[in-house]
Amino acid sequence: MSPVILHLMSAFPPTIESFVLREIRQLRKDGWNVVIAGLRPVYKTRTPGFEDLDRYVSPAPWISLEMVAAGAFYFTRRPRQVWGCLKLISRSFPHPVQFVKMLYTLLSTMRFAYRFRNLPIGLVRAHFLHTEALAARFMHKLSGIPYSVTTYTVFVHFPKTVIQDILHHAAFLVADTIQVREYLESLGAESNRIHVVYNSVSIEEFPPSVRVKTAGSQIILAVGRLDPKKGFDVLLSACSVLSKRGVEFRCVIVGDGAERDRLSAMRRHLGLEGYVEMVGALSFSGVKPWYYKAALLAMPSVVTSEGQTDGLPTVVIEAMASGLPIVGTKTGAIPEAVRQGMNGFVVPPNDPESLADSIQLLLEREDLRTEFGRQSRRIAEAEFDLKHKAQSLSHLMRSHLSLNPVSDSL
């Protein structure tokens, strides 16, 4: 029997993070036997277009008799392993919310470890250095199954000692950018176990196309959740600068979130109702046409007071695959994709004037937009193609499995 790759997700179906689902789909196309386990249910609107993965999902209600049976099984048969998990959880005791979340993660992990105890699982994969990675660590403690962690951010929620324990015991680590690799190294992860594999998109979903001519002003496109780290307030300030300069433009912000009311009020205060349209959240099929209508993508990310920032937003890669020039900020890993003066401009964060300057230059220079867009597509094909990413991940998993053969029973 071929080894099973158990892919842990905090919830399934997810409401965002469609790039994870695309990766799973591609790995299955490449012949990997991937099973998906959602640690908790989700009752929000699902990400459409991934119904084909439903058959590979092992469901998990909040509480079930199976969870009780699993707890009894591990507490009686493997008490030392359970105690090790509880000791890890105790590190978050001063933080009640984290403590409860970690305790529930253990109970949910026990359920899956019990459910899959007779499957030939060769590797547990966890996306995000959060509950998924914690569950993978618990699975390793309970069943001895090796795990890997893919990390996309330089901000973590659990205590540092818990994160370091997770990193130390992983079979290998995947960082989606050089920035993340350096962050993992700062937490003590060994460099030789960290592999940079960029977040990617399916290039074939973005066929090369002539830009769609739109009536009226050229479109500045911005896409993302409306939360502080995206810096959309800075973009609104830049739009105010452009309007005062007499520049003709239309800014379209796609997304929804906690910042919507504040941003809407700011738009009114700056008198930008005629310039800025906030269209709300859209599915991938709804966002995609905007990439071909827009003149450029603006990614005005910032670092929040809590230290949160973007890594390498998927929308940047999607826009590049669509042949768009990008104006981004020097935060996170945006400069790893947006090459200054090649496929866009990189400006300081929290600097509306500089953001406005670069946007204005692109709006006024069609030749520059065309060349930057061509380079964006070239870079996306060479460095951010999902097929290449899946090949890199397959190589890592094959190398690990060849060193750790899997028996038919665990």
List the helices and strands and how they pair.
Layout (H helix, E strand, L loop, with lengths): L3 E8 L6 H12 L3 E8 L16 E2 L6 H13 L1 H12 L5 H20 L5 E7 L3 H13 L3 E5 L8 H10 L2 E4 L2 H9 L7 E3 L22 E5 L8 H13 L5 E5 L5 H10 L6 E5 L3 H10 L2 E4 L14 H8 L4 E4 L4 H4 L6 E4 L4 H13 L1 H18 L2 H18 L7
Parallel strand pairs: 1-2, 1-4, 2-3, 4-5, 5-6, 6-7, 8-9, 8-11, 9-10, 11-12, 12-13
Helix pairs in contact: 1-15, 2-3, 2-4, 3-4, 4-5, 5-6, 8-13, 11-14
Account of the 3D structure:
The protein has 410 residues and is of the alpha/beta class. The protein folds into two domains: 4-200 and 385-403, Glycogen Phosphorylase B (Rossmann fold), CATH 3.40.50.2000; 204-383, Rossmann fold (3-Layer(aba) Sandwich). Helix content is 45%, strand content 16%. It has 15 helices and 13 strands. The chain has helices at 18-29, 65-77, 79-90, 96-115, 131-143, 160-169, 178-186, 232-244, 260-269, 284-293, 314-321, 334-337, 352-364, 366-383, 386-403, and strands at residues 4-11, 33-40, 57-58, 121-127, 147-151, 172-175, 194-196, 219-223, 250-254, 276-280, 296-299, 326-329, 344-347. Strands 3-2-1-4-5-6-7 form a seven-stranded parallel β-sheet, with helices on both faces. Strand 8, helix 8 (232-244) and strand 9 form a beta-alpha-beta unit. Helix 11 (314-321) packs across helix 14 (366-383). The longest helix has 20 residues, at 96-115.
